[in-house]
Amino acid sequence: MSEKPPDEENLANALRRLGENLVQTLQAAWESPERKKLQQEIEEGLNGITQTVERQVEDFKQSPTGQQLKAEIDDLRERVRRGEAEAQLRQELLSALQTINSELEKAAARLRNVASADAPPNESGDKE
Fold this sequence. Notes:
Helices cover 85% and strands 0% of the residues. The protein is mostly helical.
């Protein structure tokens, strides 16, 4: 008499065969000419894209716009190295802040004038 009932043995065998069949199927699919052809097409497509992008980048570098951009970047790099960009940025920021503060002060003064004109007179008859 066997230790396992026949149904358990059949189930175990069926599961083992299923695993073997899955492995064989995946291996056959991986080695199939269709998969290899698809992989080759994808690789060729990616190589083509890479070459096109590299060509476009090189064309842009040689164009007047590309040369101007390179010159501006080189100039900015040099100004940053010398500290000029920081000083100019600081001056422009300071000027902008002074303008904003001046306009805010004017607006606050106008609002105070409107508020004092609308306020009731104090006990002495003067406006605050």
